[in-house]
Amino acid sequence: MPYSAQHKHDTHQKILESARRLFNKKGFSDVSIEEIMEDAGLTHGGFYRHFSNKDELYAEAVRRFLCDDAPKPWRPAPPRQAAGSKPRGQRVLDAYFSQDHFDDHETCCPLIALPSDVMRGSDTVKGAYREVLKQLIDIFFDDLDQPLRRERALALVTLCIGGVVAAKCVDDPALADDLRRAAHRQALRTGGWMTAASGRERKIAQSGR
Question: For the whole prediction, is pTM greater than 0.70?
Answer without folding.
Answer: yes
